Structure to design on (229 residues):
């Protein structure tokens, strides 16, 4: 059976997609067939092939074998806002069956499926469904991306507490330097390492325009990654 895991972030802009593309390349460098999935994506642009989301396209490009876009992103929403609001503006209700169906198909194609969330762990996708129910339905362990910026220590601790209190296995956390002008980023990283009760799997530098495949050296993934604890 293939392996799979869910990538969440401390908040919007934490660096989830950037980190996910680096993770996909790291897994591929181990000789694994690794594909990415973003079940729900807001901020999608109309194209000749339908709505396309920049983050989902980045995951698709980092995947091998290259999956169909409809499997990577079953729910593409137009407006760049919270998914619950974007879905309402599009006149749709995000539901689980298309996500589960796409996930099953991706899992049949690959050794590892990386499923990236949207926004933070508890962001609602509709009035009755919080995002945390996606990894529960797909039975996935969780990896947390922490964007290094003011407030990240509190956000990271709350996110990890929310994940663990709901019974999920946690693979670890990865820091992402999302703000190049941040004051004292090394001190924040050290404080996070001391505060979070889960392993740190790396720290990715702020690297706009750099090929994600060249950044895998900044990760410290266990030999059996991704296996739940």
């Amino acid at each position: 059976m293939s392996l799979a895991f869910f990538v969440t972030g401390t908040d919007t802009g934490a660096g989830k997609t950037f980190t996910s593309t680096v993770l996909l390349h790291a897994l591929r460098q181990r000789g694994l067939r690794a594909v990415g999935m973003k079940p729900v994506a807001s901020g999608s642009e109309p194209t000749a092939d339908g709505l396309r989301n920049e983050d989902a396209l980045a995951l698709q490009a980092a995947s091998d074998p290259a999956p169909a876009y409809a499997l990577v992103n079953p729910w593409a929403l137009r407006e760049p806002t919270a998914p619950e609001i974007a879905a309402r503006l599009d006149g749709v209700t995000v539901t689980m069956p298309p996500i589960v169906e796409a996930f099953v198909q991706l899992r049949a194609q690959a050794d590892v499926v990386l499923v990236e969330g949207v926004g933070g762990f508890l962001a609602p996708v509709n009035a009755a469904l919080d995002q945390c129910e996606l990894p529960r339905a797909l039975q996935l362990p969780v990896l947390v991306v922490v964007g290094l910026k003011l407030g990240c220590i509190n956000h990271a601790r709350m996110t990890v507490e929310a994940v663990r209190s709901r019974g999920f296995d946690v693979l670890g956390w990865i820091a992402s330097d999302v703000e190049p002008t941040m004051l004292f980023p090394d001190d924040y990283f050290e404080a996070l390492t001391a505060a979070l009760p889960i392993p740190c799997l790396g720290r990715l530098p702020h690297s706009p325009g750099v090929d994600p495949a060249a950044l895998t050296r900044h990760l410290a993934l266990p030999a059996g990654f991704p296996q739940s604890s």
